[in-house]
Amino acid sequence: MVGSVTTKIANVGFVVLILAASVVSAFAGDAKSGAALAGKCEACHGLDGLSKIAEAPNIAGQNEQYLIEQLTAFKTGERHNEMMAIVAPTLSDKDIEDLASYYSAIEITVGKIPGK
């Protein structure tokens, strides 16, 4: 009886692991492809993800899922911005995933913390 319970627990654990891996991979874009697409973002966000103009946020190191959600919102018109209204509609879902993967993979460091 103990052996069969242990086997069942192991099987459930394996299924959970497989499901978790498939959820993670469902959002994983290709950073290399994203780097090739980042030229569309360069004028405002830079290839390094650090804003080049005051109106654009820094996106380097941002959470991948967050970037996917925001780019999708710009693409669908749920979120509005004059500059993003030009670029976002041209992006495929794969482009969005790849760009999010690229910009989220950029490592950022904090050089100075105010008041420290």
3D architecture notes:
This protein is mainly α and 116 residues long. The protein has six helices and no strands. The chain has helices at residues 2-27, 31-37, 42-45, 64-76, 84-87, 93-105. α4 runs antiparallel to α6. The radius of gyration is 19 Å and the shape is globular. The chain starts with a helix and ends in an 11-residue tail after the last helix. Residues 15-25 have low confidence and may be disordered.
The largest sheet is:
none
Share of β-strand residues: under 5%
What is the strand tally? Answer: 0
Report, as a whole number of angstroms, the end-to-end distance. Answer: 60 Å
Following the backbone from N to C, one meets helices and strands in this order, namely: HHHHHH
Portion in helices: 55-70%
Supply the helix-strand structural class. Answer: mainly alpha
Global shape: globular
Which blocks of ≥5 consecutive residues have pLDDT under 50?
15-25
Evaluate the radius of gyration.
Answer: 19 Å
pLDDT averaged residue by residue: 85
Helical segment count: 6
